[in-house]
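Reply to dn_fold:

You asked what the input looked like. This is it:
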Amino acid sequence: MLTQLTLQNLALVTNAEIEMNAGFNIITGETGAGKSLLLDALTLCVGGRSDAGLIRHGQTTADAFAEFNIGQLPEVMAWLSEQNYPFEDDTLLIRRQLANQNGTLRSKAWLNGMPISMNELKTLGGLLVNIHSQHAQQSLLRPQFVMEWLDSATGLNSQANDVKQAFLQYERLKSQAAQHAKDEQLRQQQIQLLSNQLADIEPIATVLYSELEAEYDELSNLENLMQQAALSVQLLDNDSDEPDVVSLLNRAIKLCEAQTELSQTYADCVDQLYSAHTQIAEVASTLSNYAEGQSLDPKRLALLDEQLSTFHRLARKYHTTPETLVEDSKAWQQQLDDLQSVMSPEAMAEQIEQAYQAYLQKAQALDDSRRANATTLAEALVARLKALALPNVQAAFEFTPLDKPQSIGLSQIELLFSANVGMPMQPIHKIASGGELSRLALIMQVIDAQGVCRNTTTDMATTTRQLLVFDEVDVGISGGTAQVVGELLRELGEEQQIIAITHQSQVAAQAHQHILVYKTQQEKAQSHLKILSGDDQVQELARMSGGVNITEETLKHARSLLASRRVS
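and this is what came back:
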């Protein structure tokens, strides 16, 4: 629950702090006093949209702080643990700051001193607070509202979402199949093109261009290479009288050996000369074998020439280089494999049918659940409305099968309503008056909040422990009806925390805590908050009942309202 709300430089408020009690908290005040500022601050703290108009004139920043006790909200604690946000003593402190930086609005938020993103704050806010707008009655006129309310009030939200996701999967598969069919001609053309390219490359696919080129260069220069090898052997080691490297090296070895006893340097040089002698002998042998063992193979040379020509021709054809041609062909093969692995139209059609059957099964189960719960929910609605000066009210849900599958399920659902004897029930948008819509909206919100028609413990726990906020709860309601509304909210407040703005003294008198918002006019207009009790509360109720001129009669009426409220 919300334990404390703090406003700093927020619109008409310079600095204000209010403690919130468990139960039914009411906010009253004259028109223009700033009653909605408390809800604006709370809305900011649970991820609501920022508004530069909320920054007090002459200031550059505005802050709102909301402190919650989450001891009765296991869903919130679970979410915090999943997101790695620390909390101690079941306490959460949310801070939201608006800043005007050179005409640009900036918004930041912190959770227990740690920065938190707006998306995360909205998610957390949805677990903490359930805000019902003063325009809720207008929502009744939306075609989907009745269905959404039925699902929420009877604990079918999760099931309805499963149906929606199953439908979206079915639609995605259909869309993919249509796109594949559209692209099939192009796909086949690409398959044929890649197949032809790979067929061209196939004769040389296993050949390395670099090795091929090296072998060709060697064979084409073989005669010259053999001559140079023979000449090199002649210079290194020959049997003629011409000087060669080996004979000269032998002379050097003898000269150095003669001096080894006199100098270590000569001894070291002898070792090195013998090593050089061995290496030169090996080189001479290798070159000799090469010069004598090679023979020109014209057929091999022609084959190499043909393969090289193929490399160059295909490289030009496919706008690449001979060196990368084979590597490119591997990429072509991968592309071909990818194109050929695309699901066949038959397999795709089977997948679509499976998705449709999965959707149909879930949608039918949802439709059955909705129909099974509709009667109980309608009866709860009628029972509550009769207490609000609608003794002859009737209500029922009408299910109309849809012509084709939709994300909402198999049926369109309307709420039929009649407030008068002898009048047939019709859709609410056709016959309900403004006052009737207001009462209907309020009762629907209360039923949803209480969770009395839910079948699942989980859904009930999630909703009933949230802070429930009603903005302008008494729209279209007055007199004895307002008294019943107040009693209803007080009863609901015994189960969960409620904050509501009202203009009706009958509603305000039922609150567990009464908060007054009032405005002073000095150098700057400023709003203040005050918790009322005793004579102060009597005075405010009298003002709400009788206007500016408070008489003994209005005071007496105010005291009677307080005396008659339900004891809790």
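The CA atoms of residues 505 and 541 lie 5 Å apart.
Hope that clears it up.
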